Amino acid sequence: SATTPGLPIHSTGKKRRIGVMTSGGDAPGMNGAVRAVVRMSIASGCEAYAIYEGYDGLVNGGDMIREMGWEDVRGFLSEGGTLIGTARCMAFMERPGRLKAAKNMIIKGIDALVICGGDGSLTGADKFRAEWPGLLKELVETGELTQEQIQPYQTLNIVGLVGSIDNDLSMTDATIGCYSSLARICEAVDSVDTTASSHQRAFVIEVMGRHCGWLALMAGVSTGADFVFLPESPPSENWEAEMCALVKEHRSKGKRKTIVIVAEGAHDQGLNKITPQHVKNLLSDKAHLDTRITTLGHVQRGGTPVAYDRMLATLQGTEAVKAVLEATPDTPSPVICVIENKIVRRPLLEAVAQTKEVANAIHAKDFARAMSLRDAEFAEYYQAYQITTKIEHAHLKLPENERMRIGIIHVGAPAGGMNAATRAAVAYCLARGHTPIALHNGFPGLIRHHSDEPLGAVREIKWIDAETWVSKGGSEIGTNRGLPSEDLETVSKVFHKHNIQALFVVGGFEAFTAVSELRKGREHYKSFKIPMVILPATISNNVPGTEYSIGSDTCLNALIQYCDACRQSASASRRRVFVIETQGGESGYIATIAGLSIGALAVYTPEEGISLKMLDKDIDHLRDVFRKDKGQNRGGKVILVNEKASKTYNVRIIADMILEAGKGKFESRHGIPGHFQQGTTPSPMDRVRATRFGVKSIQHLESFAGKTPDEIDDEPMSAAVIGIKGAKVLFSPMERVEKKETDWKLRRPKDEFWMGLKNIVDTLSGRPNYPKP
Ligand code: ATP
């Protein structure tokens, strides 16, 4: 072989050249992928080439295939669309087009391609790879190239990145761009919501997705829509009557608005298209609602990528370069996927084949199969959606003796998604026949309960109370940092008095501590021998037992918005560095992931601390960066500092040090976004995950129905934390997590999964290696 796996050098002795291309429909985050591939290639000792305008660039060659330097991708992370262009290329569909493409690749010396696009683009890429030896042979036979020219390029390496707003590829939970698109949709639906409520109107909203209902479903989950139409799961035969009945029922319970979401590819069981107009007519004529249609169209494709897409694009782009370097002639082409929180490689051909199967199954009216071919996550969201929308589920109701009185409490600072989790829990409780009970204002609320609050701190929650909470920030039932240990005796009395039979706790590290105290309190108080679950919700994402706390995504989006504004200001005045303080307590998660999402020059975390040597090296690096900056006037420079990274060096001091070192050649500003980081409305990701985990949490609690207090006490999972660990969503027993996984002094998990990502931030910003303190 002409290349040895792992080596960036070609058999010709030259550096390997890795091409990167965006193809098919554009998607927010594609630029982040291009940046990551370019910089990771260079950092690994290769050269990077951009192929402009998708396969058109490959077929036409010449100036459409150009080397990309480190500086050429500065500022790419925060730009929407694709800056290297994309196209649908007819020529590449035919062999003569691919023959030209092969010739151009060899002339340019490129033998590896990273392609970011949808299933069509990836199919084309794999076909190209399969034909490669034949194409080379033909090029020699026809005299277009010589044997010597093709000799070093016997194999072509292809790696796929899925860039698509539809999230339609099988084997991955998310595609680059889908969460940005969902964010656009949710902004729009939230806006329509307010006017719908004001006028008591109904709105039918059409969203993109020909064979894939992901956007429609997730929009439904995150906005609390009344009805959704998905291609994979058409409604029942008499859906027209059912929809009208459901909508009327919601209205009769006091709902002032109706939102119905229709995927572009929606149809009934007979594959007859369901159009927004048809749904509108039904709502107007049969349900007698003043109904309007909103078609979102290309708005859904556009705009700035959200934090998640920037992170995903960056992690997947770096993984793609690793995959290129590790490939052997026998490795099947991989596509880079994500399962829950884990970046994985999957065989490209299988992923594409499975994706096509979904469309085939829909065509064959085998909808059960279409659903089963989607990821497990999709089916779970679908169930969660159905349960949280319908009020009466006769078939879901539990027998009387299995119904529980379930307390719901918020602990700690507010975090985006707390209300969505509570709404889902309430809806699920009602569907099953449980009684959801809000414990207002955290544990201090309960402890003061006996005194004089007019309504009392313990109140049943009705469906209509919780119905509008899905998109609300803050905490509707009130949250407080206080712990049960303030007065365990009173907490126990209140639990007893109100016959609380299970507890759902939503919050951050304090919530975790609270559940730990209650669990330990079981020794003395029988009323704590009930099942309890904590759903981690904190912007700091520092709760042991999970890699993801709801609210952290909302925070990242607020933070990158702030940083983007600073960067823009910094790049307008060119020679300026912004030093920005992030929250996060003793955990550098927020700072690191925000750093990854904006391309920070340096990130300082409490885990690493800050030493004078680090500052010195980073200031040297800054001098270097400004020296090389030829005034492209893109992307100002940002340094992120966690609030607890150092007792000595705060953002003000660091900014002053930079100013002095800059000697007039560059200057600095500092910024402290503070509580702005809690965000306003929760991000769609926090809303949908809160909904899914809220339902799962109550399912876990109800599995203890009918057990005696002592049986519950004996069962380690009766006090549990729900979370994401790697590729799985799971419950972990509190006792183990408390003892084995928690750093109580620093209030964070002992093992922080994201520590490995820190190196990627440094590599991609070109930050020099320095001795770790
Ligand atoms: P989107 O998510 O927007 O549908 P996509 O990548 O699936 O993205 P397509 O239009 O299907 O979009 O494909 C993009 C380009 O990939 C095509 O214009 C064509 O150049 C190439 N391509 C697609 N399918 C094939 C194929 N079977 N053989 C060769 N090339 C293909």
UniProtKB/TrEMBL annotation:
A GO biological-process term: fructose 1,6-bisphosphate metabolic process
Residue ranges of the region described as Disordered: 1-15
Catalytic residues as annotated in Swiss-Prot or TrEMBL: 166
Pathway in which the depicted protein is active: Carbohydrate degradation; glycolysis; D-glyceraldehyde 3-phosphate and glycerone phosphate from D-glucose: step 3/4
A cellular component annotation (GO) from this entry: 6-phosphofructokinase complex
Region named C-terminal regulatory PFK domain 2: 405-773
Required co-factors: Mg(2+)
A GO term, aspect molecular function: 6-phosphofructokinase activity
Main localization (coarse): cytoplasm
Residues that coordinate or bind Mg(2+): 119
Compartments, record wording: Cytoplasm
Keyword match Aminoacyl-tRNA synthetase: no
Binding residues for substrate: 164-166, 201, 208-210, 264, 292, 298-301
Keywords assigned: Allosteric enzyme, ATP-binding, Cytoplasm, Glycolysis, Kinase, Magnesium, Metal-binding, Nucleotide-binding, Transferase
Quaternary structure, from the entry: Homotetramer.
NCBIfam families: 6PF1K_euk
Entry-linked PANTHER family: ATP-DEPENDENT 6-PHOSPHOFRUCTOKINASE (PTHR13697:SF4), PHOSPHOFRUCTOKINASE (PTHR13697)
Name used for this protein in its record: ATP-dependent 6-phosphofructokinase
Organism per entry: Delitschia confertaspora ATCC 74209
